[in-house]
Amino acid sequence: MSRYVFGVPSIRHEIPLQLLRNRPDVAPRIARTVFGLAIPDLPCWRPGPETVTLLSPGELHLDLVLVGTNADKPEFAIIHEVQNSCRTPELERIALSWPAYVTHVRQRLGCPVVLLAFCPDERTARRVALPVETGHPDFVFRPRTYWPGMLPAITTVAEADRWPELALLSAPGHLSDPERRNVLTMVLEAMHHLEPDLRVHYHDYISTCVPDRYRKEWEELVAMAIENYHWESDFAHEHQAIGRAEGRAEALAGSVLRILDRRGLAVGEADRARVTGCSDLDQLMHWLDLALVVDSAKQIFDLDAHPQNGTG
User: Fold this and answer.
1) Going by DSSP bridges, is the β-strand pair 73-82/51-53 parallel, antiparallel, or unpaired?
2) How far apart (Å, rounded) are the C-alpha atoms in residues 295 and 263?
3) For the segment 251-300, what is each residue's pLDDT rounded down to a tens digit?
4) Which of 146, 189, 194, 191 minimizes the C-alpha distance to 170?
5) Which end of the chain offers a freer environment for a tag, N or C, measured as fewer CB atoms within 10 Å?
6) 3 state SS for the chain
7) 131: left (phi > 0), else alpha (psi -120 to 50), else beta?
């Protein structure tokens, strides 16, 4: 079971950071391609200290520090913040804390430091990027902010396989594009290359970013991906009945229960037996669709008893 538990209110903060922790060399790639910064090509990038202790009581808590090293010596550091709000209190906090982040990490590591901030949309990125006057002559701090639409859309299997983290980071900025369906398909492709025990959280993250008008399209893609994954791999090896109706029913029933389990929704023994004992493929597909969106497993059968409230 994963030790990372992301609550719904924080998932849009934590998932981008987890993707960067998972592959630290994504951050310098973003710094070079999005901002044109001269980040050195270093052999190793790793997560660094995310809390900077001050001499006075208290600490500065950074979201993420990524350190590029050469022969175990820090050569460059990238502070990466996720900033989802541009309200006045948040801008005031940023004005006081972010310049301190840069100066303290630079003092601690003895190398150049840049701060990047990932924002959910263009408006927030523009507001957060406003210059911060520190009061010292010529010392004006300018955050480097970006949002998913500034990242290139990942639309090919080759790109999704090579840069799965970028596929998820960039996708929310390209959901109104003509390439939307391809972008979402590549998100599902990318998830196969990411930590298995976090895939449900990555799914939830993308789901929170998908506008309501495209949600059904996303859910259909997920349902097809899950069905194909289990049909072609797990259940192909576990069940000799593949290709027969009962084999497919067993695969679909397993998919329904697996989705509910991975979403943390408890399934009672009677309901579990009802799913595993069902041989109606249409009914199982209906339950599979509901399993992706309901708030509790019980809702699946409540909605099933009242079809007008279903997804159809």
Assistant:
1) unpaired
2) 9
3) 678 878 878 877 778 888 888 888 888 888 888 888 887 887 788 888 88
4) 146
5) N
6) CCCCCCCHHHHHHHHHHHHHHHCCCHHHHHHHHHHCCCCCCCCEEEECCCEEECCCCCEEECCEEEEEEECCEEEEEEEEEECCCCCHHHHHHHHHHHHHHHHHHHHHHCCCEEEEEECCCHHHHHHHCCCEECCCCCCEECCEEECHHHCCCCCCHHHHHHCHHHHHHHHHHHCCCCCHHHHHHHHHHHHCCCCHHHHHHHHHHHHHHCCHHHHHHHHHHHHHHHHHHHHHHHHHHHCCCCCCHHHHHHHHHHHHHHHHHHCCCCCCHHHHHHHHCCCCHHHHHHHHHHHCCCCCHHHHHHHHHCHHHCCC
7) beta
Q: What's the whole-model pTM score?
A: 0.70
pLDDT tens digit string along 175-202? 988 889 999 999 999 998 888 778 878 8
One-letter identity of residue 293: V
Rg (CA), the chain: 23
Angle (CA) 152-39-22 rounded to 5° is 60
The sign of the torsion formed by the CA atoms of 40, 42, 47, 51 equals: negative
Structure tokens given for 170: 């960039």
Residue where the block lists tokens 């913040």: 81
**Which tokens hold the place of 60?**
């500065």
